Amino acid sequence: MGQISVNRVSKSWGSFVALDSIDLDVREGEFLSVLGPSGCGKSTLLRIIAGLEAPSGGEIHLAGRNVTRDPVWKRRIGFVFQNFALWPHLSVFRNVSMGLELRRTPAAELRKRVNDALAMVQLEALADRLPSQLSGGQQQRVALARAIVLKPEVLLLDEPLSALDKNLRQDMQVELKTLQQTLGLTTVFVTHDQEEALSLSDRVVVMNKGVIEQLDTPDAIYNRPVSEYVARFVGEAFFFRGRVEERGATQGMRLAEDMVIPVEGAGQRAGRDGVAFVRPEWVTLDTPQPHGDVELPRGVVDRLMFFGQSSDYLVTLGNRQMRVKRRPDAPKFRAGDTVILRCQARLLPNAASAP
Amino acid sequence: MKTSALVLPAVVILGAFFVVPLIWVVILSFLGAGPTGEVQHAFTLGNYVRFLTDSYYVNDLLLRTIRLAAIATVFSVVIGYLGAFVIARAAPTTQTWMILLVMLPLWVNLVVRTLSLMVVLGRNGPVNQILVGLGITARPLPLLYNETAVVIGMVQVAVPFVVLSVFGVLQAIPRQLEQAAMTVGATPLAAFRRVTLPLSVPGILAGSVLAFGINVESFVVPILLGGGRVRFMSVAAYETATVSNNLPFAATIGVILLIVTMVMLGVYQWAVRSAGRPATAIQAA
Amino acid sequence: MGKFLAAMAIALATTLSAQAQTKELVVAAFGGAYTDALKKNIARFEKDNDVKVTFVPASGADGLAKAMAKEIDVVHADMAWAYRGEAQGAFEKLDPNIVTNLDKLYPKARFSEYGVITNFGEYGIAYNPKEVSPAPSSWLDLWDAKYDGAVSTAGFDAANIELLVLMAKLNGGNEDNIDPGFKKMAELGKHITVFYSQHPQLLDLFRNNEVVIARWLRGRVDWANKQGVSLGFAVPKEGAIGLVSTVHVVKGRPNTELAQKFVNHLLSVDSQTAYASDLGYTPARAGLDLKGVKVPYGEEVVGSLLIADWKKIVPKMDAWKERWEKEVVAR
């Protein structure tokens, strides 16, 4: 059993099922992200772990203790709200110290622990300020300090970075990860930002309509998604549908009479219909040779999108458009050029999940 | 230029209907009255001396007025706060109905409302019937025509104003602030005391200032519920003008009530504001 | 069509000019049923004098203020406000050549050169016959310890001032020596739980048996009986206290003569009869035929009414009011 153990937890409001029998174990010291679009149930799950919401069924264990019936104030958690939820009438110091005051911590110890927590988020100098006198990033740090000062068994973060602008968000991601590793805190991080989830986490949960779609390492989630839903939600994906066929030692997918794309991945036997996908960086564009690669898919370059450190081609394939990462060593194409696509698409294990 | 032109009508209206009559009342309070009530145009401090050197006016009238208004304000704020809290925590559809229910009395004439309160509090009214029926008292209690009745009447008038001013403030406090307190170990009561209550101080302040202002100026309530025994400043001012026919002294009573009320409200605001901001109670070392 | 329009225009112009010539007389009265009774016979007066009479509800302080501001032509008052108005020079002398009906009044109705009493009401003792037996016969019955807590009177109003003066007189004082009166009234104050301020309030107190005996108006006791609260009304042997309505012509208005005529109209047989039949008040005019009207009437009735010397009282009212609060109301 992990530090956090969620057993068959359900939540419904009337006929609306927010969570459908969720099972989840979070290991001690692990950074686990819960990823999904709004309304998928990820925040509800986090609030049930915290005790801010009661489950309709199932059990929650924290550090081996069944806390399902414990109210939030008896669980040893740290919680960071999306909009920080700092107390506007209290100074930074008192925002952080309230938890210790409530535990009747002796004054000297209280002062030391609050100052340590503030030091950890580099806010010692602003202890006397009111939250309204702080920037967004500083407020975020106060919220973090407030959560960690109590040395919680678990740290629960509800989209804590979504209120910050992009640059600040990236800085805070690094800080957050460093802090988590320093303290060895078991952390559940709810987000709808897949890059954030992939870069910070030891493992990622992808949720969809109240169920866990996939739980795995960031690498596996990105490269070996179990469903079209996960593939689509995490990173950019372009899908192919067709019949899987053996092509010697490898597999291919016949997309049309004269078009086959090489595929890999277990789960689809030859002769069955399947779904495969590619990421933009998996594809190499090439100039079609008069007599070679006759069955490879062909497309027409629409334009090149320049992002600074990288650039993407927008390529029209049939009536769909896909994005292909431009390789520095590859020849340059212009709008209107016909190209062939060299790539190995990945077969999704379960055809039933295709729409 | 433009702004001042826009503000002008408001200034004119305020001046014509508030400031000018007020200045006239203040001037009047420094004049004398002849034997048949004619105002004598000669400066005198006599009216203030008469009021301030007579324990009847200071104790029986002024202090009683302030005491009853203050007691009624405390009850109004407590009851109004509880009401506002319940409404703020109710479902949105229920909320609309509850607010409507709170505002309903404001659309009924004050005299009519007070008269119905007389029926409720009367010797054979429902309150006494319940008290006697439950055996809490053997005989009907004298709930009418005394200070208690006046306080109840004032509370009845002021509570809706407190509810509305506190509700607005409570509504604007995100529930997450209380939840945040609970995540650091606060029970709901502690979370309320440490977060919601201090944050709703502006509402309490506005509500109590409004309630005290309304209560201290009460006229209909002490006349109808006081049974002629509960003397009140506004009633005394009115009777001094209409029965004694001493307009300058009536003006004096009004001015003294106004000054005392303003001073009290000033002190009260200052006290509540400084009590509501114990931010430096624990210093960062 | 054109002829028709022209005729219309002429008709309209005629009406407008006729209206423009009609004078207006503004009369301040007590309002409610009182004004309704005054309106009853007004049409003929308006027609005879080519005048439009407008009634505004104002009396007491308000009425005097309007008179001083010359906003009204005729004003109603009670004894106190009548003397105040007279002292402040608000009123015109009544002209006996126009107000010819002055001769027909009981002498007691002749207030002064500056005003006249139009009718009287009677304050006596209202009592619950089930609780008060035998019927009260003296004002002093209000003081009976039996009725401690169950006796009521109003606040410092005109009738209580009369009672105060009566008590002074019964105990060796008078308007100039009021101390004995206050001493006696202070004793009454100790028996009183509620000083009523509204008639419906006293009615409720009688209905709930919280009050069994009170100083009240005869007309109001009749009204209480109609409301299903059976009460008796006793005229004390010392005399009933007179409720007095005066009327005055305001000085410095353009239509003083019309105003004098209006006062004369109020003293006419029709108007005087209406005071009795519509309001239950005793008319000030002698020799009326009031058969079938249940109102006390006649020389003897009017003569026996207690009406103090208000000329002496008015300058003392401010002081008396303060004493009343301190000595009678305070416990």
Protein architecture, described:
Chain A: Keywords: ATP-binding, Nucleotide-binding, Transport. Chain A: This is Putative spermidine/putrescine transport system ATP-binding protein. Chain A has 355 residues and is α+β, with helices and mostly antiparallel strands. Chain A contains eight helices and 20 strands. Chain A has helices spanning 42-50, 92-102, 107-120, 136-148, 166-183, 194-200, 218-223, 228-233, and strands at 4-13, 16-26, 31-35, 57-62, 65-66, 77-80, 154-158, 186-191, 203-208, 211-216, 238-247, 250-256, 259-264, 273-278, 284-286, 298-306, 311-317, 320-325, 338-342, 345-347. The longest helix of chain A is centred in the middle third of the chain and has 18 residues, at 166-183. Chain A starts with a strand and ends in an 8-residue tail after the last strand. Chain B has 285 residues and is mainly α. In chain B, strands 1-2 form a two-stranded antiparallel sheet. The longest helix of chain B has 34 residues, at 55-88. Chain B has one domain (46-284): MetI-like (MetI-like fold, Orthogonal Bundle). Chain C has two domains: 2-120 and 244-304, 3-Layer(aba) Sandwich (D-Maltodextrin-Binding Protein, domain 2); 121-241 and 310-329, 3-Layer(aba) Sandwich (D-Maltodextrin-Binding Protein, domain 2). Chain C has 14 helices and eleven strands. Chain C has helices at residues 2-21, 32-40, 42-49, 60-68, 79-87, 158-170, 179-191, 199-207, 218-226, 256-266, 269-279, 299-304, 310-313, 317-329, and strands spanning 23-29, 51-57, 74-77, 91-92, 116-127, 151-154, 192-196, 213-217, 232-234, 241-250, 282-283. In chain C, helix 2 runs antiparallel to helix 11 (269-279). Chains in contact: A-B, B-C. Chain A binds chain B through residues 50, 52, 71-74, 77-79, 81, 83, 85-91, 93-94, 97-99, 101-103, 107, 110-111, 114-115, 127-128, 130, 146-147, 150, and chain B through 174, 176-177, 179-187, 190-191, 194-195, 198-199, 276-277, 279-285.
